[in-house]
Design brief:
Pfam families: Methyltransf_24. One of its GO terms (molecular function) is O-methyltransferase activity. This is O-methyltransferase. There is one protein chain. The chain is an alpha/beta fold. It has a single domain, classed as Vaccinia Virus protein VP39 (Rossmann fold, 3-Layer(aba) Sandwich), CATH 3.40.50.150. The protein has ten helices and seven strands. It has a seven-stranded mixed β-sheet with strand order 3-2-1-4-5-7-6, with helices on both faces. Strand 2, helix 7 and strand 3 form a beta-alpha-beta unit. The model has no long low-confidence stretch (mean pLDDT 95).
């Protein structure tokens, strides 16, 4: 058994995923009804993300179950001790990563969320899962909250916040990524700039697309 597959984390995640699938959030329904091109424009925006995600503050918008398991597996296989997450939401992906840290023998997960109500829910969920002691939840814009107070080296970075900021966040944290560090970007196609940079032959990364619109990259050097 692992922390991920045993109580209290496993039943907690099952409940959170079930709630995300079943709870109707009017703002999310309205957003989903927008034309595809308009949804893509909003999700890719570097200027409208605060307004968009504030409207969706009651929506979990989680990673898929498969992606959550992948996050745990990658963090375990990398023997990660320091993880940074951009975009906490209700803490579903955070739970997967913190479970990996617990099974790796401990460490630190720094995660950032600009919506206070989501940060509170994430804290409650991490406390319920017995993992809050491993997690530093920072409230505010990631381009500010991740600018200071970070460990010297980062083993794994998850990008799952405002899509248009993926490249900006990566550039901010890049000096601290250790050689061989993993970078996972969910819904990466909404940030073409990011995808182009991590796939560039001379960009310093080896990168490949995975199912569920996940981009997995390794920092070279």
């Amino acid at each position: 058994m692992t922390t991920l597959t045993s109580s209290p984390v496993a039943p907690l995640l099952e409940r959170l995923f079930a709630d995300a699938d079943s709870v109707t959030v009017p703002a999310m329904t309205a957003f989903a009804a927008l034309p595809v091109a308009e949804r893509g424009r909003l999700l890719s925006s570097k200027t409208e993300y605060r307004e968009i995600y504030a409207q969706l503050k009651d929506a979990a918008i989680p990673v898929s179950r498969q992606t959550g398991t992948l996050l745990y597996m990658l963090a375990r296989s990398a023997k990660a001790r320091v993880i940074v997450e951009f975009g906490t939401s209700f803490g579903i992906s955070t739970l997967h990563l913190a479970a990996a840290l617990r099974d790796n023998g401990g460490g630190q997960l720094i995660t950032t969320e600009f919506e206070p109500s989501k940060a509170r829910r994430a804290r409650d969920n991490l406390a319920a899962g017995g993992l809050l002691d491993l997690v530093d939840i920072r409230e505010g814009d990631a381009l500010e909250t991740l600018r200071t107070g970070l460990p010297e080296q980062i083993d794994l970075l998850l990008l799952d916040g405002a899509k248009g900021l993926y490249w900006d966040v990566l550039r901010l944290l890049e000096p601290r990524l250790r050689p061989g560090a993993l970078v996972i970007a969910d819904n990466a196609d909404y940030c073409p700039e990011y995808v182009a940079q991590v796939r560039a032959p001379d960009g310093g990364y080896l990168s490949a697309p995975l199912p569920d619109d996940v981009e997995l990259s390794v920092k070279c050097g």
